[in-house]
Amino acid sequence: MKPLLNSPEPGPLLALAAHPDDLEFACGAVIARETRAGGAAHLVVCSRGEAGSHGTPRQRVAEARKAAALLGATLEFLEWDGDAHLEIRAAHAIQLAGIIRRVRPVVVLAPSCVENQHPDHYRLGQMARDAARLARYGGVKELRRQTVHAIGQLLFYAVTPEAEPRDLSPVLLDVSAPELVAVWTEAMQAHGSQTSARRYVELQLARARVWGLRAGVEHAVALFPNSPLVFESLAPASRGARGF
Amino acid sequence: MKPLLNSPEPGPLLALAAHPDDLEFACGAVIARETRAGGAAHLVVCSRGEAGSHGTPRQRVAEARKAAALLGATLEFLEWDGDAHLEIRAAHAIQLAGIIRRVRPVVVLAPSCVENQHPDHYRLGQMARDAARLARYGGVKELRRQTVHAIGQLLFYAVTPEAEPRDLSPVLLDVSAPELVAVWTEAMQAHGSQTSARRYVELQLARARVWGLRAGVEHAVALFPNSPLVFESLAPASRGARGF
Amino acid sequence: MKPLLNSPEPGPLLALAAHPDDLEFACGAVIARETRAGGAAHLVVCSRGEAGSHGTPRQRVAEARKAAALLGATLEFLEWDGDAHLEIRAAHAIQLAGIIRRVRPVVVLAPSCVENQHPDHYRLGQMARDAARLARYGGVKELRRQTVHAIGQLLFYAVTPEAEPRDLSPVLLDVSAPELVAVWTEAMQAHGSQTSARRYVELQLARARVWGLRAGVEHAVALFPNSPLVFESLAPASRGARGF
Amino acid sequence: MKPLLNSPEPGPLLALAAHPDDLEFACGAVIARETRAGGAAHLVVCSRGEAGSHGTPRQRVAEARKAAALLGATLEFLEWDGDAHLEIRAAHAIQLAGIIRRVRPVVVLAPSCVENQHPDHYRLGQMARDAARLARYGGVKELRRQTVHAIGQLLFYAVTPEAEPRDLSPVLLDVSAPELVAVWTEAMQAHGSQTSARRYVELQLARARVWGLRAGVEHAVALFPNSPLVFESLAPASRGARGF
Amino acid sequence: MKPLLNSPEPGPLLALAAHPDDLEFACGAVIARETRAGGAAHLVVCSRGEAGSHGTPRQRVAEARKAAALLGATLEFLEWDGDAHLEIRAAHAIQLAGIIRRVRPVVVLAPSCVENQHPDHYRLGQMARDAARLARYGGVKELRRQTVHAIGQLLFYAVTPEAEPRDLSPVLLDVSAPELVAVWTEAMQAHGSQTSARRYVELQLARARVWGLRAGVEHAVALFPNSPLVFESLAPASRGARGF
Amino acid sequence: MKPLLNSPEPGPLLALAAHPDDLEFACGAVIARETRAGGAAHLVVCSRGEAGSHGTPRQRVAEARKAAALLGATLEFLEWDGDAHLEIRAAHAIQLAGIIRRVRPVVVLAPSCVENQHPDHYRLGQMARDAARLARYGGVKELRRQTVHAIGQLLFYAVTPEAEPRDLSPVLLDVSAPELVAVWTEAMQAHGSQTSARRYVELQLARARVWGLRAGVEHAVALFPNSPLVFESLAPASRGARGF
Question: Are C71 and C183 in contact (CB under 8 A)?
Fold first, then answer.
C-alpha cells in the first residue's frame, strides 16, 4: 500500500472478520489491490467458522491461510466466543483496540453494523467501531503499555447485499484490473468447503459487476466510510459513479 | 484547480447559484481553494436577488462581481424567472445542460435538494441534477450543436444548516489555510447589502469551525456528493473526520 | 387563541386546505380548541372539491361554510387550478405569502408534503412551506404593498395516516375535552356529501383515539412542526406521549 | 395473467414508461411472466426516445413494437413533452388516469419516484402515483365519460440500481424459468440501437442474478409496492428472500 | 393453517413473546385466523410477566393458558432472565434456534426491533432474527442433534404503535371476519389482570380499525416482514391498502 | 425549576452521564437555566473518566464536583463497569430506574443512542430509555420498596455533533442570557484536565452559536425528545427556528 494521506507512520491495512471466509468474499479484491501496490495487510479472524454447515474448523483455518497467502496478507485468529456465539463485550472491543495499537493501521475494514445479517457480523462491526475510539484513549488500563493510535478511517464492508448500510453513502473501489479479479476469485475459491456448497463466488462477482457498471468500470467493490471523508481539494471527490 | 482524476479535458469548476450571494456564503472557501491552486472557476447565478429585503438588483450584481473577482472566478447571470419565482422547467434544466457542455467542468457545485429551505435553492438543485444527466444525452434537440459532456461529480452545498441532506454522507473540505479563510470572509463581506442586515458571515464561520473541529482542522466546509465516489485505491478514503 | 409566544402582534391561526373538508377531517378539533379559547382562525380553501365523487361544488362550499361557522372560523376560497388540478406555481406560493402578510398569523396549518397522498395535498403543503419564507422577503414585487411577516411556526397536518411524515417528530394536541370532540364531529358531519359515502368520521376518531391513548388522554391530534421548536425552558418539553 | 385477488373485472396489466426501452430493461421478465400465464398487458410509452444518444425516433418506435410483440403486450405511445422534456403537469396525470379508466388494470407498473435518476423517470413515477388516485375520483371533469376505476396496486420498477427506493421494501418476482429469461433477453436486445452502445443487458441480468441469489432462485426482479400489501392469510407473506 | 408456499413440510406457526399477553394484544387475530383455517400455532413466552404492575406470575400464566386455548394454540414458557431483565445472549438465540428446529415453522412471529419500546420486546426481536439464521447453520454445537431448518419468513409485530418499524413496509392482514374479532377480543380479555388496569383492548381495536379503514376492510393487523417477499407472479402483490 | 406541566410532585431535573464532563459540555447551559430559575438538578455520573488520556480519576471527580456546584446541582457517582468498559446490563437499567424512583424527576437528560460515538454514551442512552420504562412497572423485584414513577419526558443530548439523532426532531433551548453562557463556560472550564488538551469549549460554543442563529437568538442547545411532545394548545408549538 502506498503511503496514505496524513499518516506519519502508516501501518498495514487492518481487516477484521467474524469468520474465516468473510473478508475474501466481501472485499478480497480491495485487499489484493493494496498488497499488489506494495502495502501490507493484516487479517484478524474472530472464529474458526465452526458453526457453518460445511467444513471443519481445521479445514477452514487452512483455507483462510491459503487465501491470506494469495492476498499477500498476514493472518491472525482470535479465541473469542466461537462462531455464532459472538457477544458484545467491552473486553472484546478493548482487545481489538489493542490490536489497532499494535498494528497501527491507517485504514480498518470491518463488517457493517446492519442488524439483519449474520449476528456475528454486526456485532463485530459495532465492536470494531468502538475499538477505533478506544485505541485513542490514553487511560484504558488494559492497554496502558501500548501507545495510543488514531486510525484514519473505518470502512465497513457488506458480505451480502442486505448488509449494505442505507444511512451511509458508499465509496466504490475500482478493482477491474484482470489480475485483481483473478486473485480475488482464487482467494474466494480457496474456501472450497464453502464454495462447493453455495454460490458465493457467483454472488460476489455479480455484485461487483453491478457496482462496476454503475461506476463505469468492469468491477467495483462498495465500502461504507464510518466517518465523513476529509479532503484537501475537490480532486478526490471529482469522480462519481454515473455509469447509467 | 489542478487536473482532476479521469478527465481528459478538465474545464473550470462550475458553480451554480440561485442568488448573487449563495455561493460565497455556502462554499466561497472551496472555490477559492481551487482557484488559488491554479484552477479556473465559473459561477452562474440565476437571479439578481431582487426579492431580498435588502439591496437593489444593481447593487447585488455589483457585489457579486466584486466577490467573484476576489474568488478568482468568472461570473455569468441567467435571465430566468426572477428571485423567489423559480420554477422547475425542462427548459431551465436544458439550458443548464448547455452551460455544462460549454464549460465542460469535471465538478459542478449546486444547492442541495432539501425542500425545507429557500424555494429557489432546492429547485435549482433538482434542475442541476437533471442537467448533469441531460448534458450526456446526444439527442436533446436544443443542444445538438454542442458536444455531449459527462461531468465527474455533482457536489451539493448547503447555504444554511437545515439544507444539509440527511440521506447523503458529507465530505469535508479542509479550508484552514489562513489566506483561504481571509478571502472567503472578504468575498462574503463583498455582499455588504446582505451582511449589514443579517449575521451571515458569523453563521458560516461558526459552521466551518464546527465541521473543522470534527475533522481535526481549523475550518472545513461540508459538501454532499450526488453519486458514490469512485476510487482507485483506499488512499483517498483513508482520512475521516474523527476529531472528537 | 391566547397570545402566542414571541409575537408582538398575534393574528389569527391561518389554516390552509386543498379541499373544502380537509381541515375539518384532519384537525378540526385543533382549530376548535383555539377558537374556544378566544383566538381567531382563518381558513383558506384552494378548490371547491369539484373533482370528488360526491357533492356538487355549490353543496361543498355550503358545507364548508357551515363547518367553519361551527369551528368559529372565517373562511376564504381561492380560485386556483381546480380540485385535482393543482400545480406547483410560484404565483400560487406568492399569493399564499400575500395572505400570510394580510392575516399575520403566528401559526400556519397546512397539509403535509408526503407525496403518497392526494396530489393536491402535498403540492399545497410544499407551496405553503415556500410561502412562509416568501412572506419574509421584502423585495417580492407582487407583495410590495404589504408589510413583511415572519410566522412563528408551520405545522403540517395529515388528512390520512399515510400522509404522516416519517422524518418529522409529531407533537400531539390534547383535544379530549368532550365539547371539542363534539364540535369536531359536528364539523366533520357538516360535510354530509362526503360522510354519507365514506367512513371518514370514524377514521378520524379512531386515529385520535390511538394518538390519545399513546398520550395518556382521551383524544389527541398529531401535527408535525416544519421547524425545530424553540423553548425558553424545559417546561414545554416536559410532557411526552408515554401512555403505553 | 390469471385472475388477481379482489377484482371483479380484472383488466390487463398496465405498464407505464418514459422511454421506449425502459420497461424491457427494468421488468421485461415480469411482463412476460404475466402474459405467458395467459394475462394481457398494455404498455404506454410517453416519448419516442428522441433525446437518446443513439437511435432515431423511428428506429426506437420500431424496436419498442418488436419488443412488445415479444412480450405479448399491446403498445401505445403518448404525445407528451418529448424525451428529456417531461414536466409535472396536472393534464398529464389526468390523461394517465383516463388510460387507467379505459384499461382497468389491477396492477400498474411505473418508474420509481427516486429523484436521482433520469428526470423523465421520476416525474412519470410521481404522475403515475397521482393518476392512480385521480382515476377513482368521480368528479374530474375531463374524465366524466369514463367509469371510475380503483387499481389494486401500483408497483414501482427501477431501471437502474440507484432508482431503487430506500423507503419502500421490495418484493421479488421469481423469473427463473429459462423461457422467461430468454424472452426477456430477446426483448431487451430488440432495442438494438441502445444495446449496441451500452451494456444494458448485462447490467439487468447481473442485477437479476444478485436479487435471485438473495431469493434462493436463479433470477428475480425487484418491484416496490406503493401501498401496503393486503393479505387474507399469512400464506402469501410466508416466503422471504433469505438465500444468504 | 393451510399449506404455505414452497414448504415441503410446513410446521405450525411459531409465535414468540416476551410477556404472557404480548401476542394476544399485538396479533391475536392473526393467530386465530391461521388456526381457524386448520393450521397449528405454537406460542413461546419468555417470562411470566412478573415485573408488571398488575397480576401475579401464577395469574398471568393462567391467563396466557386460557388465551392460548381460545386461539387454538399450544403454549410453552421459557425460563430466561425474567420479565424486565431480558438480555441479549448468544445462548438465548441458540435456544430459540433450537425451538425453530423442533417446531419447524414456515412463519415466525416476533416483536419488532424498534428500540423505543419495552426493553424485553426489542431484545427478543433481535434474538429472534438471529435465531432464524442460526437455525440454518449446521455446525452450531448445541443444536447438532436437531436437523437444520430454514424458515420461510420472520414477521415482526408491534405491541404498541411506537414499535412499528419505520424502515420496513407493513403488510396488512385482513381480520375483519366477525368471529376473528370476537375471539381476538376474548383472548385479550383473558388477560384480565392487565385489561382491568389499562385500556389495552380499546387501543388494539382502534389500531385495527385504522389499519382496516386504510385497507378498505373492517379490521386489519399490520405485520412487518424481515425479508423481502418472494412471489411467483404479480397476483399476491395486487391488492394494496388504498382505502383513502 | 418552575413547576413543570402535568406533574403533581415535580422532583429535580435528573441528568445522566457516562463521564464526569459529558453533561457540562453537552448541556451545561440547560441545567444552569433550570437551577437559575429555582429548580433543582441532580447529576448522576457512571464512571470517573479513568480511561481518558488526561486527568486522574481523583482530579476528574474533583472537577465534576466543582462544575456541579457552579451549575447549582447535586452530584452522584455510580460504581459501574468503568470508563470505556460500559456494557448493556439489565442490572444497570434497573439501578437507573431505582434512581428515577428516588429522585422522581419530570425530565430526564441522557446521552443519545446514536451508535457512532463514544461507546459508553450510546449504551447509557439506551439503558436510560429502558430505565424510564422500568421505573413505571410495579413488579420489578429489585425496586419493590420504591413507589413507581412515570417521568414526563426523556430528552437526549449530543456531546458531539455526530451524536445528534437523525430520526428525532430537535427542540432548541434558548440559553442566550449572558449569565447562562458565562456559567456554562465556567462549568466546562472546571474540567481543566480536559479543556487544556482539546478545544471542547470552543466546539460547544460554536455549536450553540450555529443553533442559536438558526433559532434567531444568541445561543441555543439542541435536545431530542424521546417521545412525542404533548401540548394543551398550539401556543408551545408556535415558535420555530427560522432564523435563516
Answer: yes
Contact of chains A and C by CB distance (3 or more pairs under 8 angstroms): no
Determine the Cα–Cα distance for residues D197 and D192; give it in Å rounded to an integer: 8
Q: How many Cα neighbours within 13 Å face the side chain of B75?
A: 26
Name the residue in chain B with its Cα closest to that of C133. Answer: B118
Reference C25, options C99, C95, C103, C118; nearest CA is C118
Q: Which of B1, B242, B244 to mutate to test the interface with A (most CBs of A within 10 A)?
A: B242
Is the model's pLDDT at B2 over the cut of 90?
A: no
Q: Which of F141, F148, F156 to mutate to test the interface with E (most CBs of E within 10 A)?
A: F141
Residue of C nearest to F175 (CA): C232
Helix (H) or strand (E) holding E154: strand E153-157
Cβ B130–D116 below 8 Å, yes or no? Answer: no
Smallest CA–CA distance, residue C200 to chain B, in Å, is 30
Cα–chain center distance at F219:
18
Q: Using CA of residue F230, residue F234, residue F235, residue F240, what is the dihedral sign? A: positive
Spell out where chain B has E strands: 13-17, 41-45, 74-77, 107-111, 153-157, 171-174, 220-225, 229-231
CB D228 within 8 Å of CB D179: no
Percentage of residues in chain E with pLDDT exceeding 90? Answer: 92
Q: What is the pTM of this model?
A: 0.96
Cα dihedral value A110, A111, A114, A115, nearest 10:
-120
The whole-angstrom separation of Cα A37 and Cα A33 is 6
What backbone torsions phi and psi does residue A174 show, to the nearest 5 degrees?
-75, 115
Q: Do A228 and B30 touch (CB under 8 A)?
A: no
The Cα C209–Cα C222 span in angstroms is 11
Nearest beta carbon to residue C206 from set E162, E198, E209: E209
ipTM value:
0.94
CB contact under 8 A, A5 and B106: no
DSSP code for C141? G
Instruction: Provide, as residue numbers in chain C, all residues whose Cβ is less than 8 Å from the Cβ of B49.
Output: 139
Judging contact as 3 or more Cβ pairs under 8 Å, the answer for C and D is: yes
The beta-carbon neighbor of F231 closest among C168, C171, C242 is: C171
**Which candidate, E33, E167, E188, places its Cα nearest to that of E112?**
E167
What's the CA gap between B27 and B43, in Å, rounded? 12
Q: What is the pLDDT of residues A78-128, one digit of tens each?
A: 999 999 999 999 999 999 999 999 999 999 999 999 999 999 999 999 999
The rounded distance, in Å, linking the Cα atoms of D127 and F149 is 51
| pLDDT, greater one: A199 or B173 | B173
**Sheet strands (E) in B72-119:** 74-77, 107-111
Q: Which residues of chain D have pLDDT under 70?
A: 1-10, 243-244
Contact criterion met (CB < 8 Å) for A106 and B229? no
Enumerate the β-bridge partners of residue F77: F45
Mean pLDDT across B211-223:
97
Residues of chain A with C-beta less than 8 angstroms from the C-beta of F118 = 133
Question: What band does B11 get if pLDDT is binned at 50, 70 and 90?
Answer: confident
Nearest to D238 among E106, E215, E242 (CB): E106
User: Which residues on E lie below 8 Å from D236 (Cβ)?
Assistant: 5, 229, 231, 236
Contact B167, B154 (CB under 8 A): no
Residues 6+ apart with CB under 8 A from D174: D212, D215, D217, D219, D220, E230, E231, E232
Q: Express each pLDDT in F116-156 by its tens digit.
A: 999 999 999 999 999 999 999 999 999 999 999 999 999 99
Strand-by-strand arrangement of the C41-45 sheet? C74-77, C41-45, C13-17, C107-111, C153-157, C220-225, C171-174, F229-231
By residue count, chain A amounts to 244
